[in-house]
Design goal:
6-stranded parallel beta sheet, globular
């Protein structure tokens, strides 16, 4: 990093400590944190210990932590990240207390490095905005000397905090694009916000913006978004997205093709114009399959809200917002009319002979085809649930079979481009291993991360299941498809035998299948198979023509 002119950012002590410290320092002010997205509060997976920053031991450990890093890495930076309060609110909202906490966190840094600068995520001001009101924000932001803290306006592409906090009350900040959660694969973005937001922030009155940044949880998706955002770090004026997209298209594919340029204009006003304020986390039903009993219709308003919260959000952590709806059916995130996007796909296909040798064209064609088919599958799923509620076994079978077929077809499509292969992910994990035992562990880790996460019980999936869902060939065929098939089989059984749907019975079967797959070692291809253009054309004709 240093050779490339980059300044590293090292961690500082945030207060999280092992349980053993309570025995070594029994008088220290150490508390156990609350549950964070576990199934049953199992202490093995949750509720870690936190040393209160007001305790003198905090500064002692913090100083030692910084100095140990200096010995390890040398004097490579003065910037240290610390997020003690990220999704972890202080025990009181008293501004004086919060100010003392912030001062203690910084004091621990400064004891180890007299020139220390605290780099802090601003996510807490969004995710826990009910706690972090102006007095609390100012207390934390002003608890350190001016210029010794830089805030990352983490979600500025959707919810810029600088606009509602008087420029973070005078604290320097970096305008950041978050964009992606969990490395999910979904075409999504807000090109208009990216092309103007950083400039608006920089030239605003009393601006304290000092830079731009990207802080996505995964980057191997939506290349158009990341190319534009990368350019904004070097631009002093706003960009006109329409003109920029024409230039982008020509650069990306090596030539100007009218149909593709027309398609990108459509995508700009649809997929890449998400202005509903929802933090997009792919909850399309193929990859985030609803875990619910569709036979339960007459829910109270409170029960309905709780039900939808479980389906669509991470518990209390506002990773994305729930939109109000007039139905109790599960809702996916759809922020644009679908048929114009289907037309954009048609235009891409018209251009396929002109761009047959372009790998970037192939990637975009596969991704766009996947997008339109996934959104179609959402409607097919809802049609199946409606048929189930109407006790129409024939219609239910028709729609559920179509849903499963869509999964199979998308898997075949994704297999034709090496950017959408499960095998690549698993192979990269196994290559890190030094011995067979590590290889098994690393493969289990890689499989579990993109599926169940970990702390499931026999009848309850992890609350983080599918958080890192992926549209990858292999994962659809061997994981998402069996999940949907077993669920539909249980629903059909209840219709045919006129008995209640046994949700817990399905959960038990599915979780067992999931855990078996997570522990599996079967190989998946790391090379593309098939003609992506031909497959895309066939699927377009099959579902839209």
């Amino acid at each position: 990093m240093l050779d490339l002119g980059m300044t590293p950012v090292l961690p500082s002590f945030s207060g999280n400590v092992p349980s053993a410290l309570t025995k070594i320092f029994p008088s220290a002010n150490i508390t156990r944190l609350g549950d964070w997205n576990t199934v049953d509060g199992d202490p093995r997976w949750c509720c870690t210990f936190l040393l209160d920053p007001s305790d003198p031991l905090f500064i002692e450990i913090g100083e030692a932590f910084i100095k140990r890093q200096l010995r390890e890495y040398g004097d490579v930076t003065d910037i240290y990240n610390c997020d003690t309060f990220n999704e972890n609110s202080p025990p009181t909202n008293d501004p004086t207390y919060i100010s003392n906490l912030g001062a203690a966190v910084y004091k621990a840094m400064a004891r180890g490095d007299k020139d220390a600068i605290w780099l802090m995520q601003g996510w807490l001001f969004y995710s826990d905005s009910g706690f972090w009101r102006p007095p609390q924000m100012q207390a934390l932001l002003h608890s350190v000397p001016f210029g010794k803290m830089i805030v990352l306006d983490l979600f500025a592409d959707v919810k810029p905090i600088w606009k509602t906090s008087s420029q973070f009350y005078g604290t320097p900040y970096i305008w950041c694009m978050l964009h992606n959660f969990g490395g999910n694969i979904e075409m999504y973005g807000i090109l208009d916000a990216i092309s103007s937001g950083p400039v608006d922030a920089r030239i605003s009155e009393n601006s304290t913006m000092v830079g731009v940044g990207m802080c996505m949880e995964g980057i191997e998706q939506n290349p158009v978004v990341y190319e534009l955002m990368s350019e904004m770090a070097f631009r002093s004026e706003k960009v006109e997205p329409v003109d920029w997209l024409k230039s982008y298209s020509r650069r990306r594919y090596g030539k100007a093709v009218q149909q593709v340029e027309e398609a990108w204009e459509i995508l700009h006003h649809t997929i890449y114009n998400c202005t509903d304020g929802v933090a997009d986390h792919n909850i399309d039903f193929i990859v985030k399959f609803p875990d619910w009993d569709p036979s339960i219709i007459n829910m109270s308003i409170l029960a309905k809200q709780e039900h939808m919260q479980k389906l669509l959000t991470l518990h209390k952590k506002r990773r994305f917002l729930v939109e109000e709806t007039n139905t109790d059916l599960p809702q996916s995130h759809l922020w644009y009319p679908t048929w114009p996007v289907v037309n954009a796909l048609r235009l891409f296909l018209v251009a396929r002979n002109n761009l047959s040798k372009s790998l970037t064209y192939r990637y975009d064609l596969v991704d766009l085809t996947r997008q339109v088919l996934s959104k179609l599958a959402n409607q097919v799923y809802l049609d199946a649930m409606t048929a189930f509620r109407q006790n129409d076994a024939k219609a239910f079978s028709l729609h559920s079979q179509k849903f499963v077929q869509l999964i199979s077809d998308i898997d075949e499509l994704l297999a034709a481009d090496d950017n959408f292969l499960l095998g690549t992910w698993l192979d990269s994990a196994k290559k890190l291993a030094a011995n067979p035992g590590e290889m098994r562990q690393y493969e289990w880790n890689a499989r579990t991360q993109v599926t169940m996460w970990f702390d499931n019980t026999k009848t309850n999936q992890s609350k983080l299941h599918d958080y890192a869902n992926k549209f990858w060939s292999g994962l659809l065929k061997d994981y998402y498809l069996p999940r949907a098939s077993t669920y539909f089989a249980h629903l059909l059984k209840s219709l045919e035998h006129k008995v209640n749907f046994m949700l817990e019975e399905w959960r038990r079967e599915w979780i067992q299948l999931s855990n078996k797959w997570q522990a599996g070692t079967e190989s998946y291809s790391i090379e593309a198979v098939g003609d992506a253009s031909a497959i895309s054309h066939t699927l377009y004709d099959k579902y839209f023509n």
